[in-house]
Amino acid sequence: MIRVLVAEDQSAVRAGLVLILRSAPDIGVVGEAADGERAVELTRDLRPDLVLMDVQMPRLDGVSATRRIVAERLADVLVLTTFDLDAYVFGALRAGAAGFLLKNAEARELLEAVRTVARGEGIVAPAVTRRLIAEFAAAPVRGAGADPAVLEGLTRREREVLGCVGEGLSNAQIGARLDMAEGTVKTHVSRLLGKLGLRSRVQAAVLARELGL
Hints:
The protein is α/β, with parallel strands linked by helices and 213 residues long. It contains ten helices and five strands. It has helices spanning 11-22, 36-46, 62-71, 87-94, 107-118, 126-138, 156-166, 171-178, 182-196, 201-210, and strands spanning 2-7, 27-33, 50-54, 76-81, 99-102. It has a five-stranded parallel beta sheet, with helices on both faces. α1 (11-22) links the parallel β1 and β2 (27-33). InterPro entries: CheY-like_superfamily (IPR011006), NreC/VraR/RcsB-like_REC (IPR058245), Sig_transdc_resp-reg_C-effctor (IPR016032), Sig_transdc_resp-reg_receiver (IPR001789), Tscrpt_reg_LuxR_C (IPR000792), WalR-like (IPR039420). GO terms for molecular function: DNA binding. Residues 147-212 form the HTH luxR-type domain. Keywords: DNA-binding, Phosphoprotein, Transcription, Transcription regulation.
């Protein structure tokens, strides 16, 4: 059972999300929060597997709440937003969110996104992720650039995999391109995330674009 906390300030939207999540036999909603501060408090108390986090909320915004939750390693965070590729999303990814989903996503997309993040893959709607990465690459720099020295601990193969992750490719697509088994790709991704101190593939993709891989 995937234990989910829903953080959304609009009660009607929150109720709809909870209804969708509870329709799945493998997903359980363990708590609800109407603001970012409460989301952090409940995550500390309930220790869900995943927090479905709205971006714009009172008291504490979703990006700041995500940063706190990830910093304390309390749960993975899936950011939910009405803003398609806006600056808040970039902030959430830098804060350590495992991915993001638009509020107009279909119910099945929401459920699959939760399952994907819960598996530790962090890929949410690959087509949307590719658009995010492309937008990030084309956008002005929003902070200090990544230090190429972070790649020194990676093997040549891990760097190649990281470059593919930066293109938004799935494990299967990376395997096809690099002539590797999908399981081997997954192992390389896990290792490079550990070496780079990253929480998700999406963070790795953003780093890869920052480094020009």
